[in-house]
Amino acid sequence: MNKILALALVAIFAMFFGCSSTGGARTATATLPDGFVISAEIASTPSERAAGLMYRTELCENCGMLFVFGDEGNYPFWMKNTEIPLDVIYVDGQFVIVDIWGNAQPCKTEVCQSYPPKANAKYVLEVNAGVAEKHGIREGTKMSLLFDSN
């Protein structure tokens, strides 16, 4: 009985304090220009991208979500059903930051404003609000992305 209780506690701890709500999520490592490393869940399918970070009540300091698109394009984002403020960082195919939407606030209404990037992006990295400013992220700087093998 103690083993079952211990496993249940570990599962609950991982669900509430980990970067991912699903243990098997594909991940990528994003290294910001100042060397700060973010472990990001990958959202690459239409359903994963549509769900994004909706309904999450917290995100660890060095966690995020990386939205991956097949081609560079103008992919607007919004904060519908998002519970936490985020920085939204648009990145092109050469890993150059092309736009930043800092401190995006949750949208609690039925109709939410969408925010397209200033330039085409292939990736969009969502992190806790304030990360971009704290780590000096600027348009035109490069970041690295390493896709973890899962």
The CATH superfamily appears as Protein of unknown function DUF192
CATH class: Mainly Beta
Radius of gyration: 16 Å
Distance between the termini: 32 Å
What's the number of domains?
A: 1
Give the percentage of residues in beta strands.
Answer: 25-35%
Quick check: average pLDDT? 85
The second-level CATH architecture is: Sandwich
User: pLDDT below 50 for ≥5 consecutive residues: which ranges?
Assistant: 1-22
Total strands: the figure is 7
**Principal-axis shape:** globular
Question: How would you describe the overall organization of this protein?
Answer:
This protein is α+β, with helices and mostly antiparallel strands and about 150 residues long. The chain has one domain (about 1-145): Jelly Rolls (Sandwich), CATH 2.60.120.1140. Helix content is about 15%, strand content about 35%. The protein has three helices and seven strands. A seven-stranded mixed beta sheet has the order 5-4-6-3-2-1-7. Strand 2, helix 2 (about 45-50) and strand 3 (about 65-75) form a beta-alpha-beta unit. The radius of gyration is 16 Å and the shape is globular. Mean pLDDT is about 85; it is low at about 1-20.
Which key phrases capture this entry?
150 residues; alpha+beta; Jelly Rolls; seven-stranded mixed β-sheet; 33% strand
In short:
Helices cover 17% and strands 33% of the residues. The chain is of the alpha+beta class.
Break the fold down into its secondary structure elements and pairings.
Layout: H1 2-17, E1 27-31, E2 37-43, H2 46-51, E3 63-73, E4 86-91, E5 97-104, E6 121-128, H3 131-134, E7 144-147
